[in-house]
Amino acid sequence: MKRLKVIAASLIAILAVQCQKEDISEINIPKESVNDQISSEILFELDSMGFDISQEVKKIDGGYIIEKDIIITDEHIAESKNETTDGIAKQRRLQNIVSCDRARRITVRNRVDGINSRVREAINNWNAVNGTFLTFALVNGNADVNIVFTSRSPGAAILPRNGRAGREIQIDPGVYTGSGESNAVIQRTIRHAIRHELGHVAGLGHTNRNDLNSLPIDGTPNSDENSTMNSPSSITNAFRISRNNLSAQDGNAMRKLYGTFNRNNICR
Ligand SMILES: [Zn+2]
User: Cα of 251 to ligand 1 centre, how many Å?
Assistant: First the structure.
């Protein structure tokens, strides 16, 4: 019950994130952050649990305080890790997905400096999936989905609601560029992160986690270690899994939700 409460709190936190209206020319990757004392492993875990790690994360005895008043115990973090069944779970969909109508053209605006090409490539990857009518369109004006800079975020998404795509993707490219990996690997990983978050705003959950806000999609296999929708457990893991483009089963999952020739689409 305690766990349910914490997860409910995390969903609210995701939905309550303020849209950031920063001028792109003013965005710089900060050299320091309030969360420098917290290991990237923990930040990754909290992020994949759905918490807003752009806010201060405080270490306390036996856990962490985030978003000012939510206490996450060490036990809860350990429990959440146990939900990970790396590569042996089905593709999953979120409780709320995009309406069939709105999925036909989901507009995306990138407001983060230096990653335009990566965003375009990630969009092209999803648009290349055969047999689905869901498409993303990169635009400069008002968009359904805004990609915004959020300090120290390896990538996070607001989830779909009321038939609309999740309205925001948050990322700090500095999480990856500051790593010492080769530029090729860094760019590949940023593209992968955007691709993963686009999957979330379109209604896909984590393939490798039995998150409470998601449901397994019938007709996907019990194993897919190549899924773009696997949640990385660490930055090292993120660099590794970014080698994969969308897996065949990621495409299959999308067709179950928004299939051109599927009479039983999950979208309504
Ligand atoms: Zn994710």
Answer: 17
Q: Where are the domains of the chain?
A: 2-22+35-82, 92-258
Instruction: Give distance in angstroms: CA of 91 to centre of ligand 1.
Output: 12
Question: Each residue of 80-104: pLDDT tens digit?
Answer: 665 555 444 689 999 999 999 999 9
Spell out the residues 6+ positions from residue 89 whose beta carbon is closer than 8 angstroms to its own.
207, 208, 209, 210, 216, 222
**pTM value?**
0.75
92-258 under CATH 3.40.390.10, yes or no: yes
pLDDT above 70 coverage of the chain, percent: 83
- The pLDDT of residue 50 is 67
8 A C-beta contact, residue 150 and residue 156: yes
Q: How far is the CA of 119 from the centre of ligand 1 (A)?
A: 16
Separation of CA 197 and ligand 1 centre (Å): 6
